[in-house]
Amino acid sequence: MIFYEVKTPEEYQKVFYRQLGLEKIVSEENKVVWENKKVGMVYGIGSVDTLVVYAGCYTVPTDFFVKYRYEKPYLHFGMLREGSFLTIDRASDRINPWRKGQYFKGVEVWANMDYIKEQLLPVLGYEKEALSFLKENVRYTLLEEMQNILLRMERLIREHTLTKSLLFSLVLEFLAFLLHQKDQLFLFNKKVRGRSILIGKRKLWLSDTDMKKIIMVHDLIKKDAASFYTIYELSKEAGISEQKLKAGFFELYQQTIWDYANQMRMTLASELLQTKELGIAQIAEKTGYHSQSAFIRMFKKWYGVTPGQFRRQLTRIQNACYEE
Asked: For residues 304 and 306, what is the distance between their CA atoms, to the nearest angstrom?
């Protein structure tokens, strides 16, 4: 497994495209295109230090890790095959695994939060703290109107007509809608609206109360993923049927309850492995595993390496950074 540590978004961009084997075939002011016929392509408009949109599709050719060391927050939103999302992304000390064979297709925007506060919000007549209702590193789902703005960006990119000025205007439109409709968005201030979802060919109605119960389950797992709750236990705790809980959770969070719980456990494990205070057996216990071997198997399935290999990789990087 290849391991990288990056200190800026610009450094991450270089590492990421080099690892994917994408070559820069177009490099103009505010416009860049990376391509590899065997892997895919990415088209970018804007500047990574202020505002940039990427669209494309690619398949990851090999396993690798990236550890982010930069503190600067970004407003990150987009539409991928898995669904839509919005988050204020602060990537300090987070580790992200990229796995061979992963396929990505869609459009995403990165906007420096300082740039938003200093340049974009004043244009809309808002104070610098107007987006303070968004919590850092929390994933939100976009309303249809916001998704349509992203689809317009993607269409303009395909037609080679998207400019930096037009991107600026579209992001302003996105922010204006976000600020105007913030109480209608999923998870904003916990004010959620009922909705109808499909399970096969059958419609299932999720009421406002059902949605709040699903959010409660999400928060419970995030707080205590090491408890390995069953679907039955979670449904009883929240007072919602197992069917509604499973279908509703996937609808709102674009992943299964099991995958989310594993994500929380493995994230905690990677954080604990970054120090030498605890042994592998102790970390396994703290993440809820009664068997060290079961923990090691799941960690390797999730990250592609064993916990011991993961820790040794981190140690080598930390020693190299100290020597610098």
From this structure: 7
- Provide the residue range defining the domain that includes 38: 2-189
Question: Do 301 and 290 touch, CB atoms closer than 8 A?
Answer: no
* 86 and 129 together in one domain: yes
| Tens-place pLDDT, residues 41-62 | 999 999 888 999 999 999 999 8
Q: How far apart are the C-alpha atoms of 253 and 264, rounded to whole Å?
A: 14
159-198: buried (b, 16+ CB within 10 Å) or exposed (e) per residue?
Answer: eeebebeebbebbeebbebbeeebeebbbbeeebeebeee
Domain count, the chain: 2
Q: Which two tokens stand for residue 298?
A: 């799941």
In this prediction the pTM is: 0.66
- The number of residues in the chain equals 324
| Residue with the two structure tokens 């990851």 | 60
Structure-block tokens of residue 293: 């071997």
pLDDT digits (tens, 9 = 90+) for 60-91: 998 888 888 777 889 999 988 767 888 888 87
CB 215 within 8 A of CB 253: no
Shared-domain flag, residues 255 and 179: no
3-class SS of residue 233: helix
For the stretch 90-141, pLDDT in tens is 876 677 778 888 888 999 999 999 999 999 999 999 999 999 888 887 778 7
| CATH code, domain carrying 199 | 1.10.10.60
